[in-house]
């Protein structure tokens, strides 16, 4: 039995669907199980169990681990990240979980510090000290987060950032989920650290050009001073200070440390990762009409 913590997230929901298609028994956790059942629809199948659990409620987590041997651990970034994930790792070990697949972040680099990456680094250390078999997935920017640009593109025909012409690694969350499935179902793939990207890197100006072509109208990328961007994210994007700082930090990292793709997805899955062009075509309707507020940038 595989316990899935983060089943309602972009990666977790894709993982549940893949495991259901494969007929692999899994227990998908949510604080709102009815909502999760509705989200899964017909994808749940006979092998997926939905259970009520909350990462901040130890008793609910202990119940969720009953009879399970593996844990998929994916939590939204938050200032409580280290506290919550560390607690979950300890409870999983006590409950007899043998293997944890953790969604992490690109490796922390002290020359260009990203606070959230530092949190994940500390959690990875806890995993290493736990004695459990663990697989760490370190994905770069999610293609799905590009959908957050839609309100700006629709309302202003522009989106914002502070990366200039720097290239950025993007990966489709469905590819991350597919790698997680491989680690959870293939013993030889478990127990490693994988850095995950798509097959190509792209700058924001290049993405603006791609959107312009697909939409048949000019879409601009506007580069901003990092501090101005941080303030805008809080004012217009209603982001908490820590998250606004994180967006600026990861964009600064892309500028300072040139990014390049890895071949990890292809090596593990035997196919090329999903392409950004295909992803934008698949979701282009979002960029034609949106009810969201403006002045949001991706995180």
Automatic annotation (TrEMBL):
InterPro entries, alphabetized: Ergot_Alk_Oxidoreductase, NAD(P)-bd_dom_sf, NmrA-like
Record CDD domains: TMR_SDR_a
Domain NmrA-like per the UniProt entry, residue ranges: 2-236
Domain of life: Bacteria
Pfam families: NmrA
Protein name: Uncharacterized conserved protein YbjT, contains NAD(P)-binding and DUF2867 domains
